[in-house]
Amino acid sequence: MNDILFGGFQALLAIAAAPLLLGWVDQCRAWLQNRRGAGVLQPYRVLRKLMRKDAVIAHGASPLFRAAPYVQFGAMCLAAAIIPVVSITAPLAAAADTIALVGLFALARVFIALAAMDIGTAFGSLGARREMLIGFLSEPALLMVFFTASLICQSTLLPTIVGTLAHRELVIYPSLAFAGVAFTMVLLAENARIPIDNPATHLELTMIHEAMVLEYSARHLALIEWASALKLMNFTAIGLALFVPWGLTAAAAGPQGLAVGIVTTSLKLASAGVALALIETVSAKLRIFRAPEFLATAFLLAVLGLLVHQLLGS
Amino acid sequence: MPPPNWSSQLIHLGAALLLLSSFAMLSQRRILSLVNLFALQGAVLSVSTAIVAYTSGASHLYASAALSLLLKVFLLPWILHRLIVRLNVRWDTETQLNIPATMLVGILVVVFAFALAQPIAQLSSAVTRSTIGIALAVVLLSFLMMITRRKAISQVIGFLAMENGLFFGATSATYGMPMVVELGVALDVLVGTLILGVFFFQIREQFDSLDLQHLERLKED
């Protein structure tokens, strides 16, 4: 019972804090570019503004178009309940392992791509095609990263992996170093960050994610934006759980342990946000045809991690 | 945790970084970054040799670590930098095969090297024996780089990286070659680079380009 309450609280916390992480990354980027920035609360203001407006839906939109934002948001919330963010015990962790998690992300992607094609505008189809191109290349890389961690810990369940990695004496895993680099590249690609896609662009030649959601407005758009922020949160949490697993608490630790977990997790998320902003500031956006190369490198690094694990046994 | 375990972990990490830098070189398009990566690889090699020296107590390995630091991190990259500036080829990016395909071939090469090294590693008794596969992979990857590049400079860097792999292999399999051999190889590499540097100018003067495809037709017509 305690576990369920604990886990539910953690998932809600992640969902509520997701726009804050996005705002923090944007704020860091602004500072690095010598701008003042809109403040870390800007994503919340955008969400509030969008929630108040009346939704406009294109002629000829099918029910799929209306349903897609809810499906995407639902999938991301479910993922947030599976990933250990603050504590090792996530509420639905036993229900889904890392492979199902990748499937969940794919579900959200497929629905939003279908909805973009549903309207029949040129931009929507273009964005959907590009998104699927990125998706089909980044998914195997993500799976390979998970497999490397799973091989080390002999389990595909995220809490077990994190528990094994966190409570072992300090061992250097070269294979995890490879996997870490690969995961960072996948994170950038999956969340439409800069080397692959610019989250702030509205230039039709380069946009991927934005092109898909052009037809959405008001509450639908708000849900999609929130889901994107949550996706960034989920990926960052997975990365922290796999590669910096220290400081996550167990449910048995009680409220005090929870407080400690929240503090350490916020610190880790904040520094991850700074690192993300730094990567985005120092790198230039790749041409769309270079994206497969970028993701092929990520896949290759993840496979190398697996191979090195097999060879060195560590 | 006892000290040997720690250092063997560090050696494993060094080996993995060596492999990573090999792949980075394989995927790199710019010659300038290629030289920097080569210097980085030399630094990793030097550090891991020093760790092997510390672990095994073989003091002559300290000398070869210092030698590779001096030669591969400072001297050779410096020579290559000068060559690049004088030949004005900083952004040359010619590859025979596109980069993702090269990387996939690279993975196959690594699998091959690991499979090949497995039985050899059983024979060795050194703490570093499991890294023989990685050394072999680095050698083969540099070989692949020499095959897939058209420009003379990147081929030379591939050649030098291959020597890095051989050196690492010797260190990890048998705690290094005799000092005389090591000095000889180091000097060979240095002199080879100097001579090849002269060749670059000759090639360019002859063909107006550093593309080695021109060398395939040697008959005058």
Give a quick precis of the structure.
With about 325 residues, chain A is an all-alpha fold. Chain A contains 11 helices and no strands.
List the helices and strands and how they pair.
The complex is a heterodimer of chains A (314) and B (221).
Chain A: H1 2-32, H2 42-52, H3 63-82, H4 98-119, H5 122-153, H6 158-166, H7 174-190, H8 209-212, H9 218-243, H10 254-282, H11 291-312
Helix pairs in contact in A: 1-3, 1-9, 1-10, 2-9, 3-4, 3-9, 4-5, 5-6, 5-7, 5-11, 7-9, 7-11
Chain B: H1 3-27, H2 31-56, H3 60-87, H4 99-123, H5 132-148, H6 152-174, H7 179-207
Helix pairs in contact in B: 1-2, 1-5, 2-3, 2-6, 3-7, 4-5, 5-6, 6-7
Number of strands of chain A: 0
Oligomer: heterodimer
Q: In which range does the helix fraction of chain A lie?
A: over 70%
Amount of helix of chain B: over 70%
Strand/helix succession of chain A:
HHHHHHHHHHH
Largest sheet descriptor of chain A: none
Q: Most extensive chain contact?
A: A-B, 23 and 26 residues
Using the CA coordinates, give the radius of gyration of chain B.
18 Å
**What number is the mean pLDDT of chain A?**
84
* Parts with pLDDT < 50 across at least 5 consecutive residues of chain A: none
Instruction: Let me know the number of strands of chain B.
Output: 0
